[in-house]
Design goal:
The protein contains 8 helices and 3 strands. Helices cover 54% and strands 6% of the residues.
Length: 193
């Protein structure tokens, strides 16, 4: 087997290294449709990054959208308490036991901030996809049984979108993904892409 694999897709010839776990097949001659797809993925990445960052900022300062000012984290509020106290369903006991835990609050806020920054900057999308996906799946299980659908809600859709963004190197368009991938740290540990 050769060091490079070649394939033809939509009229463009692309190459890839055999290590498909860390590399994608990138067309050598970018098509209009490919460029458009890259910008759509970048827009989705930025939008989802804002969802995470806004949740962090609103819980930190209590702007009154989802968190009233008197329950803001900087005012002594507990970011996870309001949601976790009311969890019922099959995982109710598990989540209620975490309600108000300092560790749960710090992990939750760190995840919101970290995933939001990674998505917005276009760096570390693989770690953001795993950690953000785990957070979203946990939030989905805390929402069971769902009110409007027997199985699917926005938490699972966002988790799937995180995976897509990481798998397609969506941080390279309108982000710092290419620069990040060239750093010595990421070259030594490509899972940090």
């Amino acid at each position: 087997m050769s060091a490079l694999l070649t394939r033809k897709e939509n009229g463009a010839v692309g190459t890839a290294t055999p290590n498909a776990m860390y590399d994608t097949v990138v067309p050598t001659a970018e098509t209009t449709r490919g460029r458009a797809a890259n910008y759509v993925l970048a827009g989705l990445r930025l939008a989802l990054g804002w969802v995470f960052l806004w949740a962090f900022v609103d819980k930190l300062f209590g702007f009154g959208f989802a968190t009233p000012e008197n329950r803001a984290w900087i005012n002594g509020g507990q970011p996870t308490a309001g949601f976790l106290k009311g969890v019922g369903g099959p995982f109710g006991g598990f989540y209620q036991s975490m309600s108000g835990s300092v560790l749960a609050d710090w992990l939750f806020m760190a995840a919101l901030l970290g995933v939001g920054i990674a998505l917005t900057a276009g760096i570390g999308l693989r770690i953001a996809a795993v950690s953000g996906g785990l957070l979203l799946v946990m939030m989905w299980t805390a929402s069971l049984p769902l009110d409007n659908n027997p199985f699917l809600d926005d938490h699972l859709v966002y988790a799937g979108l995180l995976a897509l963004l990481a798998l397609t190197n969506a941080g390279n368009t309108l982000g710092l993904g290419k620069i990040w991938a060239r750093t010595p740290l990421v070259k030594r540990a490509p899972y940090l892409k």
